Design the sequence.
C-alpha cells in the first residue's frame, strides 16, 4: 500500500502542476452545460507479475497471455477539463512462466476472474492546453486515475506435474461469492472523439495495481501484481436535471365538488353589481 500511496501522490502533483501552470479552457467559457455520461467498453487484459513472461510496459503477441474484460462507466462531466466517474469491470486475466522449484523447472500457468469497482477522476488534456469551440469536432486526449476494490478468484496450474497446486479466492474470502477482496489503484491514458452531440468513441490503456502479490498465487521477485487493460468503448452523454422532471398536475377546478375561494371584498362587489 505504501507504493500505491507514493504513486498516487506523484500523480496528484502532476495534475496540480498541469492545472496551475496554464489558465484552463473551462475558465474562459462563461457558460458550460454540465452533463452525465455512460460508457460501455470492452477489450483485452494482460498480466504483469511473477507468473508472466511479459515485463511492464511490454506487450505479448501470444493469445494465451490475453483475456477479455468488459465494463460500464457512469459519471459526471464537471467542466470541459474535469470529470468524475464510477467504473465496474468484469473480466479475466492469465499468465505463464517457467519457475525453478526444487531444482526442477516447472511450467506454471494461472487463470483469474475478477470484478472491479473503482472511483476515478479524469483530466482532458486537449481542453486544458488548447482552446477549441465547443461545437467543433476534435480528438480529446486525457489522463485518469482512481482507486477502489477488486474481487477475484485464481487457479494456478502446474503444467509439468499436471495438477492444480494452489488457488486463491475459491472460498473463505470477504469478496463477492467469497472471493479474495483487495484494494486496487488505477491510472491510464486515452483519447475520445465525438461522433455527434450525444455519442463519443473512446479508446484507452489503463493499469490496475493490486495491493498484494497473490493475484497469481505465487510470490517471488515482484512485490505487487498488476494488469493492463486495453479497451475501446462508446459513450452516451445526456442531461439529468431535476428542473426537467415534471410531476402530474391535477386541476381540481374541473371537479364538481370543488368550490373556488373568493375573498370577501370581491363577494361584496359581486353582490352590489347584481343588485
Sequence:
Amino acid at each position: 500500500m505504501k507504493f500505491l500511496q507514493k504513486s498516487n501522490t506523484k500523480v496528484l502533483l502532476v495534475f496540480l502542476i498541469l492545472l496551475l501552470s496554464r489558465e484552463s479552457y473551462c475558465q474562459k467559457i462563461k457558460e458550460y452545460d454540465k452533463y452525465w455520461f455512460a460508457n460501455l467498453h470492452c477489450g483485452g487484459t494482460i498480466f504483469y507479475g511473477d507468473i508472466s513472461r511479459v515485463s511492464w510496459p511490454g506487450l505479448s503477441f501470444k493469445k494465451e497471455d490475453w483475456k477479455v474484460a468488459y465494463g460500464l462507466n457512469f459519471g459526471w462531466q464537471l467542466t470541459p477539463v474535469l470529470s468524475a466517474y464510477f467504473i465496474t469491470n468484469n473480466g479475466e486475466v492469465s499468465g505463464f512462466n517457467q519457475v525453478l522449484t526444487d531444482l526442477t523447472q516447472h511450467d506454471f500457468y494461472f487463470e483469474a476472474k475478477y470484478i472491479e469497482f473503482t472511483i476515478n477522476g479524469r483530466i482532458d488534456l486537449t481542453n486544458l492546453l488548447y482552446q477549441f469551440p465547443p461545437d467543433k469536432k476534435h480528438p480529446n486526449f486525457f489522463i485518469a486515475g482512481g482507486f477502489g476494490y477488486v474481487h477475484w478468484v485464481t487457479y494456478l496450474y502446474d503444467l509439468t506435474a499436471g495438477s492444480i497446486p494452489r488457488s486463491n479466492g475459491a472460498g473463505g474470502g470477504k469478496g463477492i461469492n467469497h472471493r479474495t477482496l483487495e484494494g486496487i489503484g488505477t491510472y491510464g491514458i486515452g483519447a475520445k472523439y465525438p461522433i455527434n452531440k450525444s455519442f463519443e468513441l473512446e479508446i484507452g490503456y489503463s493499469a490496475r495495481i493490486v495491493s498484494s502479490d497473490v493475484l497469481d498465487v505465487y510470490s517471488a521477485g515482484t512485490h505487487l501484481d498488476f494488469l493492463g487493460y486495453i479497451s475501446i468503448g462508446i459513450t452516451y452523454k445526456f442531461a439529468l436535471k431535476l428542473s426537467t422532471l415534471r410531476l402530474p398536475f391535477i386541476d381540481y377546478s374541473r371537479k364538481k365538488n370543488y368550490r373556488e375561494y373568493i375573498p370577501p371584498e370581491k363577494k361584496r362587489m359581486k353582490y352590489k353589481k347584481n343588485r
User: Anything to note?
Assistant: Residues 1-5, 20-27, 242-259 have pLDDT under 50 and may be disordered. The helical segments are 2-21, 125-129, 264-274.
